TrEMBL record:
Presence of the UniProt keyword Protein transport in the record: no
Superkingdom field: Eukaryota
GO molecular function: ATP binding; microtubule binding; microtubule motor activity
Annotated residues for binding of ATP: G104, Q105, T106, G107, S108, G109, K110, T111
Domain Kinesin motor span(s) in chain numbering: 38-373
Family: Belongs to the TRAFAC class myosin-kinesin ATPase superfamily. Kinesin family.
Annotated stretches, region: Disordered: 291-316
Record field: compositional bias (Low complexity): 291-311
GO biological process terms, semicolon-separated: microtubule-based movement
Protein known as: Kinesin-like protein
Length: 446
C-alpha cells in the first residue's frame, strides 16, 4: 500500500542583514499554514490590473517560527528534534531507510537546523546522541562541483581525492572507497561528526564560502539483530542526513560570472528540482489513476506491480515521466531517498524578511511540490529469513488443505489418494527448503 513519505517542515530565521533592513516581514505562520505577502504590491489600488497575487497561502505538515527567542511561539532546536528527529529514529528502529534534508537559500538556517552550533545543537548531533547507536557505521561526504570528497578520511592527500559514484544492481548507487566507521557509543559518533564538519569548514576557509556551495551527506547505517519465529534475523536501516547548498545557486542568473563552479552547483540543485517535480507529477498521476487501476487489475497483480515500479523511477511506464536521477551526483546518490525505498522528510528553511520575498516564495513552491511525492518504503528484512517465513506460511496453508481433504474424503479413493500424495510431496519439499535455508545463506533480491 502506498503511503506519503515526504513531509515538509518550514523553519525560519532572520539574518542580521535582514533585521538591519528594517525587519519588515513578508511571512506569517499560523499552525500549519504559511502566508506570504508581496509587500511591493501594498500600494496597489483595488481593481488595478495586475496578475501577481498579493497574499499566497501554503500548508505544510509542521511549521516552525524560529525568528525571535522572546516570541511565545518560538520553536527551539529541541522542539524540532522532538517532532522530526524522533520520527527519523522511530522509522530507522522499525527497519526503514530514512532521509532528512534541508533546502533553502543561503543564510536561511539549513546548517543551523541540521548541525546547529556548540550551544544550540542541531538534528544530526541530537540523532547521534541517542543510546541505540550500537552496531552502527558512519560515513560523511561532501559534493562540491559535482565531485565527491570523503570528510572522514585521514591525510591531506586522501581528503582531497575525488571518489567515484557507482551503482550496485541490488543495493543501488554508492560511493566507491568511501570510508565507513564502526562506532560503539555516542561520543565516537559525535567526534566523527565534528571531524567531518571541521574538514568542511577548513575547505570553506581556503575556498571562500565553499560550505554554502557544497552538499553534505552524513549517513548512519544501523543494523538490528532480532529473533523472528525463533530464527535470528537482521534489519539494516540507513539514515541520510543532508545539508544542501544554498538554493539560490539553482538560479541561472546567480552564477553568470562563476561559470564552471556555478553551473556544477546548479546541476545538482536544478536536477533536484526536476527530479522532485517529475516525482510529484508521477505520484499525483498514480493517485488519480489508482481507483481505475484497482478495478482494472482485480485478480491480476501484474498491473499493480508495474505501476509501483514506475513510481519509484525504475520502470518509466508510458504515462509516467522519466526521472533523471543520474543527471547529477546529488540526485543519483539520493535516488532511493527521493523516490524509492525511504521515509523522507524535507525541511524547507526560509527567511521571513520582505527583502527575501522572491527566494522565500520559490522555496515554498518547491516544498509544496515535494509534498505530493509518495514513496514506497519497506522494512529491510533479511532475505533468507523472509524466504523461510514465506515457506512456513505455505506449509501451513498446504497442511490445512490436506486436513480439509481428509475430512471430506470423496468416494473415489484413488483420485483423492493421488491428490493427497501430491500435496504431501509439496509439504515435504517445502519443509526441506526451510531446513536448508537455515543452513545456507540464500541470496535473493530484497
Ligand atoms: P545556511 O546553512 O542556510 O546557509 P546557516 O544555518 O549557516 O544558513 O545560518 C546562517 C546564520 O544564521 C548562522 O550564523 C546561524 O547560526 C544563524 N541562524 C540560522 N537560523 C537560526 C535560528 N533559527 N536561530 C538562531 N540563529 C540562526
Ligand atoms: Mg549551510
Amino acid at each position: 500500500m502506498a503511503s506519503r513519505q515526504v513531509d515538509i517542515r518550514f523553519s525560519s530565521s532572520l539574518t542580521r542583514r535582514e533585521s538591519a533592513d528594517g525587519g519588515r516581514l513578508a511571512v506569517q505562520v499560523e499552525d500549519k499554514f504559511v502566508k506570504i505577502r508581496n509587500v511591493k504590491l501594498d500600494g496597489r489600488t483595488e481593481g488595478a490590473v495586475d496578475s501577481r497575487e498579493k497574499l499566497l497561502e501554503f500548508c505544510f505538515d509542521y511549521c516552525y517560527w524560529s525568528v525571535d527567542r522572546a516570541d511565545p511561539h518560538y520553536a527551539s532546536q529541541e522542539e524540532v528534534f522532538q517532532d522530526l528527529g524522533v520520527s527519523v529514529l522511530s522509522g530507522a528502529s522499525e527497519g526503514y531507510n530514512v532521509c532528512l534534508f534541508a533546502y533553502g537559500q543561503t543564510g536561511s538556517g539549513k546548517t543551523y537546523t541540521m548541525m546547529g552550533t556548540p550551544d544550540s545543537m542541531g538534528l544530526t548531533p541530537r540523532i547521534c546522541q541517542v543510546r541505540w547507536l550500537i552496531n552502527t557505521q558512519l560515513s560523511f561526504l561532501e559534493i562540491y562541483n559535482e565531485r565527491v570528497r570523503d570528510l572522514l578520511k585521514g591525510g591531506e592527500q586522501k581528503k582531497r581525492a575525488t571518489l567515484r559514484v557507482r551503482e550496485h544492481p541490488e543495493k543501488g548507487p554508492y560511493v566507491q572507497d568511501l570510508s565507513s566507521h564502526v562506532v560503539s557509543d555516542c561520543k565516537q559518533a559525535i567526534d566523527l561528526l565534528e571531524e567531518g564538519i571541521a574538514n568542511r569548514i577548513t575547505a570553506a576557509t581556503h575556498n571562500h564560502d565553499a560550505s554554502s556551495r557544497s552538499h553534505a551527506i552524513f549517513t548512519i547505517q544501523y543494523t538490528q539483530a532480532i529473533l523472528e519465529n525463533n530464527l535470528p534475523s537482521e534489519t539494516v536501516s540507513k539514515i541520510n542526513l543532508v545539508d544542501l547548498a544554498g538554493s539560490e545557486r539553482a538560479d541561472p542568473h546567480y552564477c553568470r560570472d562563476r561559470l564552471t563552479e556555478g553551473s556544477n552547483i546548479n546541476k545538482s540543485l536544478v536536477t533536484l528540482g526536476i527530479v522532485i517535480s517529475a516525482l510529484a507529477q508521477n505520484s499525483q498521476m498514480s493517485s488519480s489513476c489508482q481507483s481505475i487501476n484497482s478495478v482494472a487489475s482485480e485478480g491480476d497483480g501484474s498491473t499493480v506491480g508495474s505501476h509501483s515500479s514506475s513510481l519509484s523511477g525504475g520502470g518509466g511506464g508510458r504515462r509516467h515521466c522519466f526521472i533523471p536521477y543520474r543527471d547529477s551526483v546529488l540526485t543519483w546518490l539520493l535516488k532511493d531517498s527521493l523516490g524509492g525505498n525511504s521515509k523522507t522528510i524535507m525541511i524547507a528553511t526560509v527567511s521571513p524578511s520582505a527583502s527575501s520575498y522572491n527566494e522565500t516564495l520559490s522555496t515554498l513552491r518547491y516544498a509544496a511540490h515535494a509534498r505530493n511525492i509518495v514513496n514506497k518504503p519497506r522494512v529491510n528484512e533479511d532475505a533468507s529469513v523472509r524466504l523461510i517465513r514465506e515457506l512456513r506460511e505455505e506449509i501451513d496453508r498446504l497442511k490445512s488443505m490436506l486436513l480439509s481433504f481428509e475430512m471430506q474424503r470423496n468416494p473415489s479413493p484413488s483420485l483423492s489418494d493421488e491428490r493427497d500424495g501430491n500435496l504431501s510431496e509439496i509439504v515435504l519439499q517445502n519443509e526441506l527448503k526451510v531446513t536448508q535455508g537455515r543452513h545456507t545463506c540464500l541470496h535473493l533480491p530484497v
